[in-house]
Amino acid sequence: MIDDNLVLILLIAGMIFAASVAMNARRPIVFLYAAIFCTAILKTPQLPVVREKFAATEIFMLLTWVFASQLPRLHRHLPSDRVVKPLAIAFVLSCIVSGMIGLASVPATTIDMPRVYAGVFVEIANYIYGVLIVLTVIRAIDRWERLTGAVFAWILGMTVASLVGALATVHLAPGFAYEEGTRRICSTLRNENQVPSMILPLITLPIMASAHRHLGLLPRVAMLGLTGMAFLTALGTGSRTAVLMLVLAAVALGLMLTQDNKARLLFNLGQLRSLAFFFALAVVSYFVIAWAAYDGNYSLMRTPSWQRPAALLIEAYNGKRNLDNTRPQQIRVAMEQFWKTPVFGTGPKLGARVAQTHGEVHNTYFSLLLEAGIVGLLLHLALLFQAARFCWIAVQRCPFHWYRMMGKSLLIGLLLLVLYNNTMLGLRQRNIWFLVGFMFAYGNLVMLKVPPPRTLKLPFWLKPWTPFFVDHSGYQRPAAASNS
């Protein structure tokens, strides 16, 4: 019998949720912000068939679509439309064709045929959903404050995941923050490998915000604290990819700041140099401490998660251990099968069944090559390339210093996720799709010369963060407006 208190809690939560939906029905952008934030919170009950693929993010995306008619339209024909829409449609069609061909090749006598069909259709739906996220973000973000609001929602989600992860690293988090068995830190996400894809792609933004000349002391300290928590969580997960992403982010940020001659107008460069020094010192200290504490007997079950990246990387460098045994074997098997079905692949979700890769291939690009063929892979890469190209051109043209640095951070974020997707099947996570949408939306705002808001009404708790949302550094009031 269900506990009466639990029923009461669920009833109250349901009433609050319904009231929130009613209050924001005319402002569906709020639901999009909530969806972005909730990408950091995947510890929700699993449903049949779709399992972890339907969580809080999906609820808020559905609400965004239900009230999408309330979203204003920036322009009838957006600059990104001629690139995004053809690629999006072609990618979806290629996945559908691949799935149909793959199902047709499955023997009719297969015992678990309903499960096979369900798996293929859910995976195709997942790809369609990712493409719809990109298109929705592009449509919804019609002003600079909405782009910065969406990015800030990501940072808030990143804060939650980093806080729980940091507490887990020092053994102060509740049990859900650890994977069962291995006790690896997964924070508020499903597993430890998902954590870096949430907390690290936009890590350069809180670093820069901590030295922003126009932000107050409290926001700058908060951003500095977030950076520290993200660093601690990334190491605590035991992910080798996370360590590499941290180093790459630091190098990219350094290059970005040295190449921008107006960075000194926006940031306290002395503080950023100090951060760079302490970051390098922290990385070196981590490897020294982890290696000193390492007992020389690596074990997934016994070696503490925070020691694993250092132990593996050092032993691999010394030739004592392979950096990875699973992925190279999976990729070899996937490539052998690819040459049998090179055009459209085996069909989504059928790769492991056909190629015997012992589970999904832990590499986004080889997984696509196996299951969607060369057509699916090239279309996906074309979408990423066009997002990077579109954003890069916009960054060169953007007259607003803070927004220009934000565009560069989006580019760094894509680079980090591309690296991450080399070690995981990342298309089932929402982060890559939201980020691609941000980049196209950013390009549209620059290409259409959308000015930043002159004033912005924010909730009282966000007022200290106003310089994060509003950038007047390159603002020139239109002549028509000045005459009025």
Give structural notes:
By secondary structure, the chain is mostly helical. The protein is 63% helix and 0% strand. It has 21 helices and no strands. The chain has helices at residues 4-23, 29-38, 56-66, 81-104, 113-140, 144-169, 195-199, 204-209, 217-236, 240-259, 263-266, 269-293, 308-317, 326-338, 351-355, 364-371, 373-397, 401-420, 431-447, 466-469, 479-483. α18 runs antiparallel to α19 (431-447). It is globular. The N and C termini lie far apart (68 Å). Residues 477-484 have low confidence and may be disordered.
Point out poorly predicted stretches: 477-484
Averaged pLDDT: 84
> How much of the sequence is in beta strands?
under 5%
Radius of gyration: 23 Å
Using DSSP, what is the number of strands?
Answer: 0
Instruction: Please give the share of residues in helix.
Output: 55-70%
> Which of globular, elongated, flat, extended, rod-shaped describes the shape?
globular
Category by helix and strand content = mainly alpha
